[in-house]
Design goal:
The chain is an all-alpha fold. Helices cover 68% and strands 0% of the residues.
Length: 186
């Protein structure tokens, strides 16, 4: 998985699952690999099993996003609404907000998607992956809505929050400024 060889990783986790299907870390690995490979039905099954086995909340955003991946954005929203977000850590809550906003956008509710992300997490989370991803998603929704000045402002904020380079926010800022890149620039 570290080398992004999802086919090989799938072989390994499926072999582990055949031998130890009752161990939550094995099911977790199968679910994560399936999710990353876009096999959302398999990922949903495995991540639900992990949640039943371990009771953790960390995979709630992936579970909701699997519903989106299966073409069921309303079901994703219903799932997110069923969760008591007050007990979640900030990073997990931010990821759930991103999924909920994406589901709204999938349903053609772009303004509602933007409002979904307009919470305190947008600025109060500490700089890092979750805050950068949340601000990036917000900027992209603003861009999709034609609110380009606001989109550029929030993309710049995302770039400043992105300490580990989990987004391409800096590059998006350049693109919004009219600076084009070619494959050779990479």
């Amino acid at each position: 998985m570290e080398d992004d060889d999802l086919d090989l990783a799938t072989e390994h986790v499926r072999a582990a699952r055949r031998r130890a299907a009752r161990i939550s870390t094995v099911r977790e690995a199968v679910g994560i690999i399936a999710y990353r490979a876009g096999r959302f039905g398999e990922a949903l099954t495995e991540l639900r099993a992990v949640r039943r086995m371990s009771g953790g909340d960390v995979y709630l955003p992936m579970i909701a996003d699997c519903e989106r991946g299966l073409g069921r954005p309303q079901k994703a929203l219903d799932f997110v609404r069923s969760i008591d977000t007050q007990r979640l850590d900030g990073d997990t809550k931010a990821e759930l907000l991103i999924v909920a906003a994406g589901a709204r956008a999938d349903l053609g509710q772009l303004d509602a998607a933007i409002v979904t992300l307009q919470g305190p997490e947008l600025t109060r989370l500490k700089p890092g992956d979750a805050r950068a991803r949340l601000q990036y998603a917000y900027a992209m929704l603003l861009k999709d809505a034609g609110r380009l000045n606001e989109a550029r402002e929030w993309m710049e904020r995302a770039a400043g929050s992105d300490l580990d380079g989990v987004t391409d926010a800096e590059r998006q800022c350049d693109i919004m400024d009219g600076i084009e890149f070619s494959e050779d620039d990479d």
